[in-house]
Amino acid sequence: MLEKALKRKEKYLIENKEYKRFEQLAHRRLVGKYIGDLVYGANDGIITTFAIVAGASGATLSSSVVIILGVANLLADGISMGASNFLGSKSERDFARAQQEKESWEIDHLQELEVEEIREIYQKKGFRGDDLERAVVIITSNRDVWLDTMMKDELGILLDEKDNPMKHGVATFVAFVVAGVFPLIPYIIPGVESPFILSCFIGAATLFAVGALRTLITTVSFIRGGIEMLVVGSIAAGIAYIVGSIIEKVV
User: Fold this and answer.
1) What is the C-alpha to C-alpha distance for residues 138 and 130, in angstroms, rounded to an integer?
2) Which of 45, 51, 137, 151 could be bridged to 240 by S-S, CB 3.0 to 4.6 A?
3) SS3 for 158?
């Protein structure tokens, strides 16, 4: 009977479209540990560099100046973002480790109180009577499970020792620099008559592509993700262009 029930469940899950959507989302989150850093690093890289190009063009600066400003931004902001992501990820992991050490000490030295906390946690989950007491005994009989339960259910903290903060920082930096180079290409290639116009087209296409890649880690559709990023980047570039024009006239 159990085998037949499991087969019916498997068949239902395979055919159910809503379940497939949830499964795809879970897969995206699983593989998206560093994809998130890449996508959002690229978003910032393309927007900030495109805004600098627009601002410099609005101020009618030369191509060489645009390249200098663009490259300086790529390196400075790219390093800053990568370092910030690294330090942020490392700080979160260090905080989680500190909380884990505190909970471990409490289990060793305040055992009765910690057992009572486990009892309260499982009461909130709906356990009552003998079932509650059995759950408490099972959890507290295994120290690792006990500690893990306190971390997750009491503090809401998940500690992933395999997660590498340095990789998060490097992924952000690389994505920022690679995506940010595209608006500069027309200024780097010699002989381009209207580099700003070509940069606008390349920048817009890159903005859309990078925004569309968000579908790898979210439920946002390819089109919607691309359009949202294109609109945000265009607004930033438009403001930068206007400000550059105003400053150029005033100065």
Assistant:
1) 12
2) 51
3) coil
For tokens 């903060």, the residue is: 165
For residue 13, the model assigns a pLDDT of 44
CB 115 within 8 A of CB 136: yes
Q: What are phi and psi of 81, to 5 degrees?
A: -65, -45
**Averaged over 59-78, what is the pLDDT?**
87
By the 10 Å C-beta count (0-12 exposed, 13-18 middle, 19+ buried), 208 is classed as buried
Which two three-digit tokens encode residue 209? 């592509």
- DSSP classification of residue 128: -
* Residue 251 confidence (pLDDT): 63
Residues 127-167: tens digit of each pLDDT: 888 888 888 888 888 888 888 888 887 777 776 667 778 88
Q: Judge contact between 155 and 165, C-beta under 8 A.
A: no
Contacts for 151 with CB less than 8 Å, ≥ 6 apart: 96, 99, 100, 103, 157, 158, 159
Chain center to CA of 126: 34
| Eight-state DSSP code of residue 193 | S
| HSE-CB for 78 with a 13 A CA cutoff | 22
| The token pair that represents 77 in the structure block | 């902001």
Run of H or E including 134: helix 129-140
CB 216 within 8 A of CB 35: yes
CA distance 101 to 151: 10
Q: Which DSSP string do the residues of 21-81 spell out, in sequence order?
A: HHHHHHHHHHHTTTHHHHHHHHHHHHHHHHHHHHHHHHTT--HHHHHHHHHHHHHHHHHHH
